[in-house]
């Protein structure tokens, strides 16, 4: 009898994670199980990730969210140490899982067919450094599991993520030359010369994933960690298309949260938080918002019903906009003090004529649209017409297709994208420990 295992397990034969009792995926159970030498203990990525975090903090997170027992990274069942870096296993599992979900008939699926977590992983695996880590992890895994797995079968399974890497474009990360960027912006000392220098430098993409819960418009409890990281990157990228994508994803999460599905998913995919930790998170969000106010008009995505001229559920008007960002009324003084002259809208686009929302009522009034919102996209296409053209388009839709909804995207402008990027750089700088 051979002791070698081969990935022939069907979906019905998959076991459950012994820690959280969720069903293990094929990537977790069959292709890349954890290589414990003394026992066959294997558990899912989410539990592994939580276990590693606990080890970093030198405490284990209990079921109630409290940290009680000091732990080290070893097998939770027999306490033997793993013969290789556990993070390599997580990376290989992610690569295989992403390749399985993204490749259909040898071609990549579009972003619209992927979940937010998969989009975040896709962006990570486009980085040249991540690709090198995956290949190194595969070589190390085969060496450590020599004699335990059928290497030819594992190599065949590895072709899934190798094909993925071949088809994904490669992004070369920027070197961190601008370590002192925006340092003057968060010092609040009024040093205009240092502040002006900081705005001229381009901030490199953060190497360590970060999360800004203030961007999620109160939906942070319904969003998983991977989704938060990805949404933070989209909101703070400075790219207009990424900003629009973030608004669409948040809208989808909002609709799921109203159905109750997102809440259940979030609860089963996150370590339970104690009341103290929950209050601490709420206080941190409020503190960040107070220290670094958000724009009064954030990007948003809405599905509105078409209506007739008689209904008049929404009033629109043309307005010339210079690209300035309006702060919340209560944050006017802090807004000017923090950002001051640091933010300047793109000079090649502004001022320009835009369509603004002047009033809403009825079914549209309950969606969250606000007076002053700038309509930037209609049915996912950039709107370049006037307010009268848009009103007439809505009337025509009501006449021809009264049951269809119309998608409106507001405040997804290059000015907003530039401002949110500047704000994110300042927030991340403020979180770094002082030297």
Explain briefly what this protein structure is.
By secondary structure, the chain is of the alpha+beta class.
Annotation field: number of helices: 16
H/E element sequence: HHHEEHHHHHHHHHEEHEHEEHEH
Could you list the spans in which at least 5 consecutive residues all have pLDDT below 50? 1-7, 175-206, 262-269
Chain oligomer state? single chain
Number of strands: 8
Q: Measured on Cα atoms, how large is the radius of gyration?
A: 25 Å
Task: Give the percentage of residues in beta strands.
Answer: 5-15%
Average pLDDT, to the nearest integer?
74
- Helix amount: 40-55%
* Tally of structural domains: 3
End-to-end Cα distance: 61 Å
Sheet of most strands: 6 strands, antiparallel
The dominant shape is elongated
Structural class by secondary-structure content: alpha+beta
Biased composition (Acidic residues): 172-183
Domain RING-type: 17-79
Protein name: RING-type domain-containing protein
Keywords: Metal-binding, Zinc, Zinc-finger
If you had to describe this structure to a student in words, what would you say it looks like?
This protein is 45% helix and 9% strand. It has 435 residues and is of the alpha+beta class. It has three domains: 153 residues, no CATH class; 80 residues, no CATH class; 132 residues, Pdz3 Domain (Roll), CATH 2.30.42.10. Strands 3, 4, 5, 6, 7 and 8 form a six-stranded antiparallel beta sheet that branches. The protein has a two-stranded antiparallel sheet with strand order 1-2. The chain is elongated, with a radius of gyration of 25 Å. The termini are far apart. 27% of the residues are buried. The N terminus is likely disordered.
């Amino acid at each position: 009898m051979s002791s070698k295992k081969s990935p022939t397990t069907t979906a019905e034969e998959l076991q459950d994670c012994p820690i959280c009792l969720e069903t293990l995926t094929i990537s977790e159970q069959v292709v890349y199980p954890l290589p414990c030498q003394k026992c066959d203990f294997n558990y899912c990525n989410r539990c592994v990730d939580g276990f590693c975090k606990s080890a970093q903090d030198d405490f284990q997170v209990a079921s109630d969210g409290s940290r009680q027992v000091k732990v080290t990274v070893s097998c939770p069942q027999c306490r033997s140490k793993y013969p290789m870096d556990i993070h390599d296993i997580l990376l290989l599992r992610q690569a295989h899982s992403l390749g399985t979900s993204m490749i259909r008939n040898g071609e990549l699926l579009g972003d619209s067919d992927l979940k937010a977590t998969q989009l975040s992983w896709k962006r990570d695996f486009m980085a040249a450094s991540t690709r090198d880590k995956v290949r190194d992890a595969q070589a190390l895994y085969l060496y450590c599991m020599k004699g335990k797995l059928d290497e030819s079968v594992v190599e065949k399974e590895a072709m899934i993520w190798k094909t993925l890497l071949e088809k994904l474009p490669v992004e070369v990360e920027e070197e961190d030359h601008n370590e002192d960027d925006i340092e003057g912006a968060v010092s609040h000392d009024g040093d205009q010369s240092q502040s002006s220098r900081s705005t001229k430098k381009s901030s490199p993409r953060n190497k360590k994933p970060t999360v800004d819960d203030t961007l999620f418009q109160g939906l942070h409890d319904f969003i998983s960690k991977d989704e938060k990281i990805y949404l933070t990157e989209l909101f703070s990228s400075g790219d207009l298309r990424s900003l629009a994508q973030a608004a669409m994803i948040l809208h989808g999460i909002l609709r799921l949260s109203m159905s109750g599905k997102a809440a259940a998913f979030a609860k089963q995919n996150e370590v339970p938080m104690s009341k103290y930790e929950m209050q601490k998170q709420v206080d941190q969000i409020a503190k960040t918002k107070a220290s670094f106010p958000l724009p009064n008009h954030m990007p948003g995505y809405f599905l509105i019903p078409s209506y007739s001229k008689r209904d008049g559920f929404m009033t629109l008007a043309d307005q010339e906009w210079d690209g300035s960002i309006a702060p919340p009324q209560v944050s006017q003084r802090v807004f000017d003090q923090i950002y001051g002259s640091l933010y300047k809208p793109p000079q090649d686009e502004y001022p320009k004529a835009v369509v603004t929302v002047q009033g809403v009522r009825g079914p549209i009034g309950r969606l969250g649209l606000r007076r002053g919102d700038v309509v930037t996209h209609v049915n996912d296409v950039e709107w370049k017409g006037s307010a009268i053209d848009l009103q007439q388009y809505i009337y025509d839709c009501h006449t021809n297709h009264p049951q269809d909804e119309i998608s409106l995207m507001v405040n997804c402008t290059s000015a907003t994208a530039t401002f949110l990027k500047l704000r994110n750089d300042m927030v991340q700088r403020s979180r770094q420990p002082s030297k």
